[in-house]
């Protein structure tokens, strides 16, 4: 008899749980079932830009893209990015950049990320600061236009073959929305502010981030996969310039401790804000993804995971006084030098001093998509389930 009533109680719990979670169109009937995402829409900076900034301004130069694509394809790497591996894990094609008009296919999503993008709009013109003229609010506006115009043309066109490059209007609410942005807000602050001043700006950065996430929810987005920012203090382009540091300036792995402390504070406040948004956005499934831990875990145990010293840079030449960026030529001490790539990119973590190699991106992605570094701890394949 106890088993009988226990079974009824368990069934009632399942029914109630489903009734609560099924409010969002994207939510499936079982927390253990995989989500059938028809598309991915990505927002961010160069860590996930698959060609947006290159299409808008100047294309990437060789040897970018040499490992996987065998040509430059707008990615700041020798090959695939983390967002590419996420798409592959979900059985979806790589994302076409929204700003690219040639050879694009948006049936399974679009990428609004651009290299140099920030959450807050830069105070100065983009060519003075080196950041993108497409900050997060502009990316959200691009998405809004894309959603409205693609739906219009999809519904107007009676020829099925003409619709093959456009998303179905009903798929927007079922898609996965990924975000990887914030690093450039901190990087710009390091150049212009004291650590105390920069720390004081973080709440405003996070509030503006939350405003855009709320805006995406208002536009129908329901499944959010949000990366925190990585250990910016470990980027070799900065650490290579450190000479005779005072005790405590670098951590035990050669990273600039104060910069990583700022990144961790940003991540702490971002996580707190997402907890708040889960309460306010009743139909949203929001996953906070600890990119910082994944990247720092790789950097702090590089040799254990088959990589060389994490301070090494594969493409380009960087020193205390000189920078020859990947694929560029420059005159150093009267001699013309070329910033070419290393012999074995797969053994190096940093591609160009700022971005990661395909090998590193693959390793990092494998530790993100399984959900082990997420809050709640769900893989991308089941991130559509709202956690109650």
From TrEMBL:
Keywords: Coiled coil, Glycoprotein, Hydrolase, Signal. Residues 1-24 form the signal peptide. It comes from the Eukaryota. Residues 260-287 form a coiled coil. GO terms for molecular function: hydrolase activity. The keyword Signal applies. InterPro entries: GDSL, SGNH_hydro_sf, SGNH_plant_lipase-like. PANTHER family: ALPHA-L-FUCOSIDASE (PTHR22835:SF669), ZINC FINGER FYVE DOMAIN CONTAINING PROTEIN (PTHR22835). Belongs to the 'GDSL' lipolytic enzyme family. This is Uncharacterized protein. It comes from Cinchona calisaya. The lineage of its organism: Eukaryota, Viridiplantae, Streptophyta, Embryophyta, Tracheophyta.
């Amino acid at each position: 008899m106890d088993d009988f009533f226990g079974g009824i109680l368990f069934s009632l719990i399942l029914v109630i749980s489903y009734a609560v979670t099924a409010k969002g169109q994207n939510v499936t009937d079982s927390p253990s079932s995989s989500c059938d995402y028809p598309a991915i829409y990505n927002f961010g900076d160069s860590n996930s830009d698959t060609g947006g900034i290159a299409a808008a301004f100047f294309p990437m130069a060789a040897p970018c893209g040499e490992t996987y694509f065998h040509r430059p394809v707008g990615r700041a790497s020798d090959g695939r990015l983390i967002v590419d591996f996420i798409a592959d894990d979900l059985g979806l094609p790589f994302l076409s950049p929204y700003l690219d008009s040639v050879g694009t296919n948006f049936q399974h999503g679009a990428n609004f990320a651009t290299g140099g993008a920030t959450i807050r709009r830069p105070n100065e013109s983009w060519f003075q600061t080196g950041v993108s003229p497409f900050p997060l609010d502009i990316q959200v506006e691009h998405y809004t236009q894309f959603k409205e115009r693609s739906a219009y043309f999809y519904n107007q066109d009676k020829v099925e073959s003409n619709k093959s490059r456009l998303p179905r209007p009903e798929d927007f609410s079922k898609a996965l929305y990924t975000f990887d942005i914030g690093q450039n807000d901190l990087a710009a602050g390091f150049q212009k502010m004291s650590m105390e001043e920069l720390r004081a700006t973080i709440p405003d950065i996070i509030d503006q981030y939350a405003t855009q996430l709320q805006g995406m929810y208002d536009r129908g987005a329901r499944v959010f996969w949000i990366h925190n920012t990585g250990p910016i203090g470990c980027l070799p382009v900065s650490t290579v310039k450190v000479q005779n540091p005072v005790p405590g300036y670098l951590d035990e792995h050669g990273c600039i401790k104060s910069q990583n402390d700022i990144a961790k504070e940003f991540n702490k406040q971002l996580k707190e804000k997402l907890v708040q948004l889960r309460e306010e956005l009743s139909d949203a499934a929001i996953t906070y993804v600890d990119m910082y831990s994944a990247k720092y875990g790789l950097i702090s145990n590089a040799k254990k995971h088959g990589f060389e010293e994490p301070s090494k840079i594969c493409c380009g030449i960087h020193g205390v006084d000189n920078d020859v960026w990947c694929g560029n030529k420059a005159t150093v001490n009267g001699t013309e030098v070329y910033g070419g790539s290393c012999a074995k990119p797969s053994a190096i973590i940093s591609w160009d001093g700022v971005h990661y190699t395909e090998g590193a991106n693959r390793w990092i992605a494998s530790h993100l998509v399984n959900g082990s570094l997420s809050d709640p701890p769900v893989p991308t394949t089941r991130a559509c389930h709202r956690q109650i």
